[in-house]
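FORM 7B: Structural annotation worksheet

SECTION A. Query
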Amino acid sequence: MTTFDPDLTGDDLALLAGAGRVAPTPGLPERRTRSARRPRELTGTDLGSLVGSAISALCLLWLVSARLTAGIGWFGFLLLWFLAFLVTFGIVTHDRLGWLVAKDRLATVVIVAGGVVLLVPLCWLIGYVVVRGQVALRPSFFVQDQGGILPSLPATAGGGSHALVGTLEQVGLALLLSLPLGMATAVFLNESRSTWRRPVRIFVDAMSGLPSIVAGLFIFALFILPNAKSGNALFGYNGLMAGLALTMTMLPTVTRTVDVVLRLVPDGLREASLALGASRARTVWSVVIPTARTGITTAVVLGIARIVGETAPLLFTAFGYDLMNANPVSGSQESLPLFVFRNIRAPDQNSVDRGFAGALVLMILVLVLFSIARFIGRDRSRRRQTDRPRRPAGVLDVAVVDVDVATAKETP
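SECTION B. Predicted structure
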């Protein structure tokens, strides 16, 4: 027999009846219920309101700009049309669904429009580099350098293997130096209670806005210029000096990213490790860092993205060289940003095409490095759960039944 709560009102009973929980009570008026609807759900009417508001705003702006004024230009027309569209769409949605849904719709339109405004130039830029770069890109580009290449030769002659090797070595040196330092600094800022945390954090934030050319000038003035007459190849123009300049640019990005990631590690994990008797250093090494492994991979990706296309610091450190030099501590060394910079500025069209080919290879290299970093830092917890042997169906149920039967037999 179904019982009712005397505190329930007629509206509550109608809603319960619509949900199928209780039967409608005789004597109460039946009300037509409607299903709950979230603000993000779009229907045909919503899409019609969206399109109609856009067309209405377009007609209104055309009337104002073409008939009532002398014209406002295409950029001003698009900007005013978008603002008029937002006002029209907000009024229509408020009239139909209320102010809450109207605010949600307006925020969605603004965010999507911002994404489109950023995505269109990005896609256009990538497409332009791909179209221009594939003209001179051949398999020989990855195995040949620019030795003996004259401006009169076609763009497919020679290659950029020396620049590719230089980029890999310089970015590798910068990553090898900046990742341990950045992680150690981030651990110091999060896990220690030292009074030096605030000055170090201010210094890291200040270095984040450091122009890359200042880093190159610093390495040039500190190492290269004082040893210019000594003949010491280690402190001359080479890949090591370029790696140091790139390290100064990459270090703040890695430190700030790892710092934010370590803050997201729950304090309960640290407390549980310390309660089991582990030291603070052991807790950081065995609990905190493995938990934040995916975020550390993101820090590596952001750091590489920060330095892989830098050209200004390399002009004062690596200097550039048209031939292969795989030794990063002896002699000038080329890199893909320098290769692109030199060829794009050349007066002949063949060199310009080689520059676009180098830009395309640089984009491919960044994609490969990002893919490798994501693969290394992938989340393996789900895979471990799927690799565990599954319990055969019915085993636990049979065990429970056996326990119940044994308990029943023991009961007098």
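SECTION C. Observations
Residues 1-5, 13-22, 393-412 have pLDDT under 50 and may be disordered. The chain has three domains: 1-36, 48-131, 161-379.

SECTION D. Sign-off
Analyst initials: ____
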